[in-house]
Amino acid sequence: MLAKRIIPCLDVDNGRVVKGVQFLDIRDAGDPVEVARRYNEQGADEITFLDITATSNGRDTTYRTVERMAETVFVPLTVGGGVRKVEDIRLLLNAGADKVSINSAAVFNPEFVQEASQRFGAQCIVVAIDAKKTGENKWEIFTHGGRKPTGIDAIEWSVKMADFGAGELLITSMDADGTKAGYDLELMRQINDRVTIPTIASGGVGNLQHLADGILKGGADAVLAASIFHFGQHTIPEAKKYLAEQGIEMRL
Question: What is the mean predicted confidence (pLDDT) over 215-231?
């Protein structure tokens, strides 16, 4: 059985981490490379870096940050945000990303995922899905940071993206995000019942039990969190130990 993964997530704007980070002995908590180095030392299984810089001039900063991060961090690095064309993926992979996450661009052009998967291999293509509950057992895909509804059913979309060659799905519940009340386990379960590729649960972690629930109840292969790690509430080794004690296979 494959070990489950814990993935800290950094939101980066113009080369700076924006969800506040409170590591006691980090010289510059706003530098994503410093933060990533810390997580690497703590034993994170992977690191996800979401570039929320909307401007194109910020992109060069992003490539430089990825290069610096890849030199420092020896666990798989997933980079997402503003990936719109094959060239963007090539540049990020060349800069040192191991995987690239595609979000809005997949919604506007699903064939982009097929093209990317065929060109670079499914193992480096993650499709990020931002879903919001719209009714009983119904979730809809939203774009633009959860502001724009698309009318696309999130469960059907997950199946389509798996068929189109996504190697992994990063599923964020827009309802749970930031609430600290836990992942949307029903959403995770419904998607995991329908797809065979790995899924990453995201949005809503407030404690270590939420991570365990994402795997045990939601069926996720990996669990992503930001603030519980950034604010020093928990460390990665603590989280791994907690999950292992619940019988979850972890790389300790």
Answer: 95
- Alpha helices in the chain, H assignment, sequence order: 32-42, 58-72, 86-95, 104-108, 111-120, 154-163, 185-194, 208-216, 227-230, 236-245
The answer to whether 28 is a known catalytic residue is: no
* Amino acid residing at 149: P
Task: Give residue 6's pLDDT band: very low, low, confident or very high (50, 70, 90).
Answer: very high
One of 31, 88, 130, 175 is an active-site residue; which one? 130
Radius of gyration of the chain (CA): 17
* Domains defined along the chain, listed by start: 3-244 (3.20.20.70)
Do residues 93 and 102 make contact, with C-beta atoms less than 8 angstroms apart? Answer: no
Active site residue 11: yes
Regarding beta strands 138-143 and 222-225, do their DSSP bridges make them parallel or antiparallel, or are they unpaired? unpaired
The amino acid present at 209, given as its one-letter code, is: Q
* Range 148-153 average pLDDT: 94
